[in-house]
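ok here's the first one, seq then struct tokens
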Amino acid sequence: MGRGTNKLTDRQCRTAKPPEGKQQLKLTDGGGLVLLVKSNGGKQWQFRYRRPSGREATMGLGVYPDVPLSKARERRDEARALLADGIDPIDQRKAQRSAAASADTHSFEAVAREWWDAVHRHKVVASHANRNLRRLEQYAFPKLGRRPVSAIEPPDVLEALRRIEALEHVETAHRVKTLIGQVCRYAIATGRGSRDPTADLRGMLRSPKTRHLPAITEPAELGPLLRAIDGYRGQPTTRAALQLAPIVFCRPGELRAAEWQAFDLSSGTWDYQPSKDGDPLVTPLPRQAISILRELEPISRSSRYLFPSGRTPDRPISDNTLTAALKRLDYGGRMVAHGFRAAARTILVERLGWGIEIVEMQLGHRVRDAHGRAYNRTQWIEQRGVMLQQWADYLDELREASDTEPTADRDR
């Protein structure tokens, strides 16, 4: 820097105060660098210059002493070098900030959170959406979060997934791979990505071990279980939940979190959202289910939930309640709450002759037509009503039978 610069000292900067009665004091270091000292004790570095257009301008360089004299001089010199090349330092700073902001909105984490908020949470129930967000936060963001989504390559994703595999969370690795793919496809659709790197990872992960949950699917074994449930001596709400579980065969989490406001006992329907996606399912209730609910009303109708927790009535019973109750009935290892779904699917299709599409819809699964379009879940409601009533009647016969399997009326 030429003559007439670097006039200030650290001591001058440190001790400078405006004169008595003045609001501010300007200390000039030369080359356009000024320290503006205010009466309230604040001190700010400024660079004053003439823009390439000829207009005068002032650019802030930071607050003293956070930015010491030496650093302020570096920033002044950088700004002067830009001016020598015909570049306005203020315009340069705006461009850099814009690029940084763009990079923030184009990072994998930013795109993923936007996808979750704009798309995913509206398609699945809240608990499932929140679980998927936690998976991204725990497994994807630490490795990929700050990377521009367009720069993520298959090896980057594979490295993140291998870390999950190393924890023996193979099924989680597959779930995270699916989520990353959905985020990348959203980035393509919104103009921030060009490809889905997970498409090249087919076969790269170990296959998850198939978990077979204990389930009784033989009618002759189901009858004694139903009788045992009727004789359950624990909480009345737990017994009611166990009695409803085989009749409606929804997911255990959907049953335990069922809310009274979703039931219309006059019309005999239960309108809820299956936990795997956000499409509502209207379930016609057979008369046996309505009877159980009528008996339950005076016990839990004052609560939001059909099956409130005994300790905290404003929350439903826990995940483990029904499985623990089955263990108390000496069915531990042979039957879990989820097993009623397997029993219903097997018997309705193989023994009672119902079409797989209707059964799958009642199970809360997506059913698609020949063109790949998902059926509306209010579809086949009459047929499902007939099916559920026949199923409940069949369970009654199993409960009352001794050694012979009942013959259900299959006329529909």
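and now the second one, same deal
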Amino acid sequence: MCGIFGVFNNNNASKLTYLGLHALQHRGQEAVGIAVSNRYEINVKKTEGLVMQALKEQDLNNLKGDIAIGHVRYSTSGKANPQNIQPFLSHFYKGSFAIAHNGNIVNVNELKEELEKEGAIFHTTSDTEVFVHLIAKAKDTEEFEINLHQNDREFLPLLFSAMKKVKGAYSLLILRESQLIAVRDPYGFRPLVLGKNKQGTLFLASESCALDMVEAEY
């Protein structure tokens, strides 16, 4: 069990994510990480330990931007080591994205073997990295039954293609330079709630208690 939290459209995104992750601390005590976008680039701070002990005020001040995702880790897949701390930040031909994941991929071994045979090199033992490789190698030529907004046509088809191959129970938050994307598995096994505050900031969290911490309504 891990905890994930996201903020969209608030210049204090890193500090609000810090508060949200503190409220979700019971979901993971091994490590904490926050990724923030200023609409041009994504910066990440990750470290072992509890939220309020591991992240300092200067860390949050350095994470400038109005979109953020965060993760508190309890390892159910992969070893408890620094390489597995999320969010994972990746760069590929369509830009950058950071990903925070709660859940388990049951066909992870099959997917890793398939990806490695195609040349993928894994840098962690976390099943989350499978999503990264599947997204990076996906083709955007598939047809989907839903109509996508112009801004979503670059990345979402790649994500949909990756999701079709994954079996398991999971929720994801994906941060792009100007987007925050929330994902749940087809059966909705892993929790993910949406909230909004009076200023219009949107929040996503593993549990509604994190919304209370940032004075947002479910």
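notes on #2: Strands lie at 3-8, 31-37, 42-48, 67-73, 88-92, 95-105, 168-176, 179-184, 193-196, 202-205. The longest helix spans residues 13-23.
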